[in-house]
Amino acid sequence: MATLAEIRQRLEAAESKQGGQSGGTIDNAIYAHWKMEEGGSSLLRFLPDGDDKNTFFWAERQMIRLPFNGIKGQANSKNLYVQVPCVEMWGDSCPILAEVRAWFTDASLEDLGRKYWKKRSYVFQGFVRENALADDTPRDNPIRRFIIGPQIFNIIKSALMDPELEELPTDLSAGLDFRINKTSKGGYADYSTSKWSRRETPLTEDEQAAIEQYGLFNLSEFLPNQPSDEALRVIKEMFEASVDGEAYDPDRFGAYYRPPGMQNQTSSSGDTATSAPPAPSAPATPPEPSVTESSAEPDPQPVEADTEPKAESGAQKAEDILAMIRSRQSS
After folding, report:
1. pTM of structure
2. What Cα–Cα distance (Å) separates residue 20 from each residue in 33, 193, 275?
3. 11 lies in a domain?
4. Which residues constitute the domain of residue 61?
5. Residues of the chain whose pLDDT is less than 70?
């Protein structure tokens, strides 16, 4: 028979595992580079994906943030957001983007469209060779995961297209380090001075030993679950409720997608509802803002964080925009 200490240890392990999917528990395998002070600089060494079927050494996430005016039934609850996966990540048609794309044909709806546009981020893994975070928690396994936004990702990607690059940056003996530099621009975090090292370096003996001992992460395991048809229906209902300015309804949506920190809801039958988590690897607290990048179809900075849409003028208040959208839907 197990001892009380063994039972407690097992329960704690199970709770920790479930917590990584609740949206509110910080996974300390993630290196929170966005928490660096302005002027901070950390040196990373990226590693290959543990899944050798992945051509790249990263996995792409596409998420949509749905803002809500508090929680239904809870007085004085603060505004919040819920992250849901954009199914274009799996090559399917996204019901939210199908609606939002049309908004960009009308200048008065463009800012609202940016608010609901998908946010891209990229999951990497590797070592932190120089650490600018004084309060970073040491881990037995030194292999970390990195949640990288488009600004840094474009710097990473552009180097890979350089014909003078002879070896993959993830090569164990002739790879390159990547330095993340944090500055500011226009009041937001800016990482545009981040860069690859010019000098190739091998992994140290300790780093190679860590790979042998712990293995590499399969990065796809840290992507959100692909929604079922039922979950996709709920995503569309959540989007409509969000645009209409409603509060988040745990009874309707809690079994599928929840705001950070909210635990599983219990159904009327007494069973604990299962959830489709937004992304186990996402930081539990929203990272600080960075510069929004423009493109033909807007794709604001996701993980460093989005810049908020500009405030609407008096003639374009939220109520007027919603009325305009509904009018189009009925025509």
Report:
1. 0.72
2. 19, 32, 12
3. no
4. 24-326
5. 1-27, 263-331
